[in-house]
Amino acid sequence: MLTSIKPLQLIAAAVQDGVGSPEVLLPPGASPHHYALRPSDVRRVREVALLYWIGPDLESFLPRVLAGRSQPSVAVMDLPGMHLRHYAEGHDDHDQAHDEHAEPEPAVADEHDQDHRPGSVDAHLWLLPANARVIATRMAADLSAADPANAARYQANLVAFGKRLEALDQRLKQRLSGVADKPYFVFHEAYDYFEAAYGLQHAGVFSVLGEVQPGARHVAAMRTRLEQAGPSCVFSEPPLRPRLAETLIAGLPATLAELDTMGASLVVDGNGYTTLLDNLGNDLAECLNAL
Ligand SMILES: [Zn+2]
After folding, report:
1. Average pLDDT of the chain?
2. In angstroms, what is the span from residue 145 Cα to ligand 1's centroid?
3. Does residue 218 sit in the same domain as residue 133?
4. 188 C-alpha to ligand 1 centroid (Å)
5. Which residue from 52, 194, 197, 239 lies 20 to 30 Å from 279 (Cα-Cα)?
């Protein structure tokens, strides 16, 4: 089995526990928003029997090579029962961003915004335990059909994974219940599924790429929002911390921290997925509780 991104690989590892090891296409730290396939990737995509990816709203580089596959692949975004969110048309942060972008500021325009535009599907659907269960259920069915000798094991793994997801959901609810009113900012609009499930809401999104220095006007607008928020957390994502982050919070009561939505450093095993979400909850709570 091959999955496009690490979070899907971690879900697959829970289903295949004790039977096999799922592989992943994107190398650690690579962003699915900006990935370019290598020739060896194309071969793997074409040859593997079972392939899972999120969908064209995330891995926009995949559809053209999928045409060369003889076997079907699963865009998990299309699975029945999947909870899907769309970026809101009237989203405050988007309005703010658009106002700022109304001034000619080419340095801030980035491809990433194309994946996060109002009305489009929010592709970060793996950050919701209920969606992980939908994905695991499909994987277990496909694996059982392809490998009937181990079908009972896949089904038992699925049941065990479901129980771990329920416990995870309870842990996250408990851990995050006290931090709902603490302000925080993110560099990437990736957390809506998680936030909606656990009663959180970011105070703003700083729309910048790690290596691009935005214009002075945009930086000033972001500083103003940070000043107004008072003590707050500013979360970037590994492996890149935008150079801007340090400058942005200089002299303000803001704390820099990281949230890892991809689990780049996590061990691939049956507990990898729950660790990914536990870490997300812990890192959020740790910074917000210290404000
Ligand atoms: Zn994203």
Report:
1. 89
2. 33
3. no
4. 6
5. 52
Cα-to-centroid distance, 82 and ligand 1 (Å): 18
SS3 for 174-191 is HHHCCCCCCCEEECCCCC
pTM over 0.70: yes
Q: Ligand 1 mean position to 147 CA, how many Å?
A: 34
Q: What angle do CA 86, 88, 90 make, to 5 degrees?
A: 170
| Non-local CB neighbours of 49 within 8 Å, separated by 6+ positions | 1, 71, 146
CB 11 within 8 A of CB 273: yes
- The whole-angstrom separation of Cα 119 and Cα 134 is 23
| Pairwise CA distance, residues 261 & 230, whole Å | 26
Q: Cα(280) to centroid of ligand 1, in Å?
A: 15
CB-CB neighbours of 68 under 10 Å: 11
DSSP string, 145-157: HH-GGGHHHHHHH
**Do 110 and 204 reside in the same domain of the chain?**
yes
CA of 156 to the centre of ligand 1 (A): 33
Find the domain containing 95 and state its range.
85-122+177-289
Residue 60: how many other CB atoms lie within 10 Å: 17
Q: How far apart are CA 126 and CA 124, in angstroms?
A: 6
Phi, psi angle pair for 241, to nearest 5°:
-105, 120
Alpha carbon of 58 to ligand 1 centroid (Å): 8
pLDDT score for 95:
35
pLDDT digits (tens, 9 = 90+) for 108-123: 334 445 577 778 899 9
Residues 167 and 254 grouped into a single domain: no
